[in-house]
């Protein structure tokens, strides 16, 4: 009986150790890969993201790498939309005002 319990306990401990080692090995593999140099495609991708980030900070909310043709097209489209929809500031979200309706109480006989 005691030998049977010892085998059960050892199998439980063995499975717990296996799971823990598997998780630690998986985590250390990820950390090890981050410490190594990235492959060229990943490095190029990260470099482009960093370059775009620096350009977008310089533009401060505008479109990155927008040339004069883009600005001309944007202004033409904005004037077209203002003409179609009656003007107003098209760069801001419209403010809606819904007044509360006046309801009358109806009595039933």
Question: What layout of secondary structure does this protein have?
Answer:
Elements: H1 2-35, H2 40-59, H3 68-85
Provide the structure class: mainly alpha
Tell me about the largest β-sheet: none
- Please estimate the helix content: 55-70%
Total strands: the figure is 0
Principal-axis shape: flat
Low-confidence stretches: none
Distance N to C terminus:
84 Å
Average pLDDT reading: 79
State the order of secondary-structure elements, H for helix, E for strand. Answer: HHH
Percentage of β-strand residues: under 5%
Radius of gyration: 33 Å
The number of helical elements comes to 3
GO cellular component, one term: mitochondrial inner membrane
Pfam families: ATP-synt_F6
Subcellular location: Mitochondrion; Mitochondrion inner membrane
Protein name: ATP synthase-coupling factor 6, mitochondrial
What's this model, at a glance?
Helices cover 66% and strands 0% of the residues. By secondary structure, it is mainly alpha-helical.
């Amino acid at each position: 009986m005691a030998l049977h319990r010892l085998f059960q306990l050892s199998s439980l401990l063995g499975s717990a150790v296996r799971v823990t080692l598997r998780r630690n090995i998986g985590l250390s593999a990820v950390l090890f890969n981050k410490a190594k140099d990235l492959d060229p495609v990943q490095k190029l991708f990260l470099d482009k993201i960093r370059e775009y980030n620096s350009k977008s900070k310089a533009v401060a909310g505008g479109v990155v790498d927008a040339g004069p043709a883009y600005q001309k097209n944007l202004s033409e489209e904005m004037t077209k939309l203002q003409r179609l929809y009656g003007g107003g500031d098209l760069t801001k979200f419209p403010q809606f005002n819904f007044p509360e309706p006046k309801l009358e109480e109806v009595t039933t006989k």
